């Protein structure tokens, strides 16, 4: 895809981002939250929080937001060297390289951030596309949390924990 614009998320994006995640969540096995569990206020809070400490990016194509991704701190002093990654390419735009573009930008930022040692994420075992993307960007599987996610049909699936380690800073 050409003419993608990547920028920092703004408060006014919250409704669109919330709607996109709600839509994404209609497909079981991608996100953990169910469609009814999203609200705009939570998106606004996160956008504000990450302005000061973290990274919240959106990607636009033809003036339309087509994906977003974030790196957030984990709160405690002992975890200061670790950030948690979330990425969502919006429905209708998956499989066209946008995830690749967002991951490139996130990990460039992570690699440049003083003191950052590790980026963590969790991905559902059935989410082959996401797992492929993470492996491609150098994430390693660290663990498997069996029967962690209940899908709407009642079945239980595993969550995989993955991590990326920043290159040593000289
Ligand atoms: C996972 C996600 C971020 C990937 O972004 P994307 O823009 O769709 O992915 P890209 O087009 O950049 O790349 C997808 C890669 O996966 C591969 N792929 C696609 N479907 C696949 C499958 N079923 N199994 C394995 N690999 C697959 C593609 O071939 C491509 O790899 P390549 O670059 O080596 O050819 C995006 O699909 C998404 O947000 N999905 C919904 C929400 C979600 O799952 N978020 C992650 C939660 S942990």
UniProtKB/TrEMBL annotation:
<feature type="domain" description="N-acetyltransferase">
    <location>
        <begin position="4"/>
        <end position="167"/>
    </location>
</feature>
<dbReference type="Pfam" id="PF00583">
    <property type="entry name" value="Acetyltransf_1"/>
</dbReference>
<keyword id="KW-0808">Transferase</keyword>
<keyword id="KW-0012">Acyltransferase</keyword>
<dbReference type="InterPro" id="IPR016181">
    <property type="entry name" value="Acyl_CoA_acyltransferase"/>
</dbReference>
<dbReference type="InterPro" id="IPR000182">
    <property type="entry name" value="GNAT_dom"/>
</dbReference>
<dbReference type="InterPro" id="IPR050832">
    <property type="entry name" value="Bact_Acetyltransf"/>
</dbReference>
<protein>
    <submittedName>
        <fullName>GNAT family N-acetyltransferase</fullName>
    </submittedName>
</protein>
